[in-house]
Amino acid sequence: MQAIYAVDSKKGLSKNGVIPWKSKKDMQFFVNKTKNNTVVMGRNTYFSLPQRPLKNRKNVVLTNEPHLYSEPDVLFTKMYEKNEKIFFIGGKTIYEQFIPLCEKVWVTEIKGDYDCDLFMDYDFTGFSSRIHMEDEELKIVEYFV
Prior knowledge:
Strand content: 25-35%
CATH architecture: 3-Layer(aba) Sandwich
Radius of gyration: 15 Å
Helix content: 10-25%
Low-confidence stretches: 72-77
Oligomer: single chain
Mean pLDDT: 91
CATH topology: Dihydrofolate Reductase, subunit A
């Protein structure tokens, strides 16, 4: 299992329930990592998506209110396949619960302060890390066990 998320320079995860930056590089990285795999998210993350469900992925929403979901792709109707990966994609509570179970976490650090009101400063003690990519806009760090 893996997790993937982005934060700003102050470890901000979101502002008013949405991602406040627009980064084509980060979105392309997210799509390339998660497509043709399963994405697991909480209710707020699901309803914050501009397009629901995410295309070319099995979408799983962890919720106490399953009656809110009518899209057939959200229903977990079959087990994941051997070559398929599971990605936790948010929100903060999902990350805090499942990152300890992940063998890999991808963190994009967007270079800039976006005045966020929700922060994610996970302690990656026990993980090794390497910079996957860095430029003037962002840095992508791979944490792994």
